[in-house]
Design brief:
Elements: E1 9-12, H1 15-21, H2 25-29, E2 31-38, E3 45-48, E4 55-62, E5 65-69, E6 72-76, E7 80-84, E8 90-94, E9 101-108, H3 112-118, E10 127-129, H4 133-145, H5 153-173, H6 179-196, H7 205-212, H8 216-227, H9 231-249, H10 254-260, H11 266-277, H12 281-288
Domain HTH araC/xylS-type: 189-287
Organism: Alteromonas lipolytica
Keywords: Activator, DNA-binding, Transcription, Transcription regulation
Length: 293
């Protein structure tokens, strides 16, 4: 394993400090034991015949590199994030002509698997694409800075929670590497944009499916898989969010608000609003209005 390259930053949290951190249930859930960067390094090559006790998260910011483990080989380009499982023999190296710039973490904790599940990362499909590189770098620096304050109880807690925030940023900006999945996301996003500009209408599942170019059944299944809610329920939530804003920010009559959102029956609108917000429109306005009497 070659080390000592220009542009390298490397933090190894002392084992005794890791042991102390893991007595805190938050840190025990997610904690970085190693943090580092390499900047455009030719000849950067690492091989570990028995892997590491922790999982390794590598993020490519520029250039190209290759990771090999579990019988597979994955090329990393800017915006790619890969996770090498704990105790897994592996190697990785920078491209000879266009060497990568990367940062990485060694990660342990009983919550880490849940973050991987959210990001849909597995040993068989270990790589994702996150095109917002500046957002990733900012989130990394947020983690790194907490290694420079001494290993106090507060800084250890901040190390854990800033790493959790990093994975939250990954989820926020994640895009699938597979072209077919990218196409799915674009079609779904197109229908979401139509919903946002059609709050005054009552769209049907058939209409949304036609915009996406799928059958209603196929569209509904793909939409729910991505958004965790059926399309028409998502559309209704957008309408209710708009209704909340109007109730808080205007004195517009409730009947007019209902009509502006495609509901000609104000009583039906009120029942629907209460189902989503646990308050009738009238009581919601009374509780949250920002308009002075």
């Amino acid at each position: 394993m070659s080390e000592g390259f220009p542009g390298q930053r490397l933090i190894v949290v002392p084992p005794a400090i890791v042991e102390t951190a893991e007595k805190n249930p938050i840190c025990a859930g997610l904690f970085p034991t190693h943090i580092g960067t390499f900047e455009s390094v030719k000849g950067h090559y690492v091989k570990r015949g028995e892997g590491t006790p922790e999982s390794i998260v590598i993020v490519c910011l520029a250039g190209v590199g290759v990771c090999r483990f579990n019988g597979g080989e994955w090329q990393l380009k800017p915006g790619h994030l890969i996770v090498i499982p704990a105790n897994c023999p592996h190697s990785y190296e920078a491209d000879h002509e266009n060497p990568w710039t990367i940062f990485w973490f060694h990660v342990r904790g009983n919550m880490f698997v849940h973050y991987l599940n959210e990001l849909q990362i597995s040993a068989q499909d270990p790589i994702i694409n996150i095109p917002n590189i500046s957002g990733l770098m900012d989130a990394f620096e947020d983690v790194y800075q907490h290694t420079e304050s001494g290993y106090t109880n507060t800084s250890l807690l901040c190390l854990s929670t800033s790493l959790a925030h990093f994975f939250g940023i990954c989820k926020l900006y994640q895009r699938s590497i597979k072209a077919s999945q990218q196409g799915v996301e674009k079609r779904i996003e197109k229908t979401v944009e139509v919903m946002k500009t059609s709050l005054h209408r009552l769209l049907t599942l058939d209409q949304l499916a036609e915009i996406a170019g799928w059958s209603p059944t196929h569209y509904a299944a793909l939409f729910k898989n991505k958004m965790n809610v059926p399309p028409l329920e998502f559309f209704t939530r957008l309408k209710m969010q708009s209704a909340c804003d109007k109730l808080k920010l205007t004195n517009e009559p409730i009947q007019n608000i209902a009509a502006s959102l495609g509901y000609n029956d104000a009583f039906y609108f009120s029942r629907l609003f209460k189902r989503h917000n646990d308050l009738s429109p009238k009581n919601y306005r009374k509780a949250f209005s920002l308009i002075s009497e």
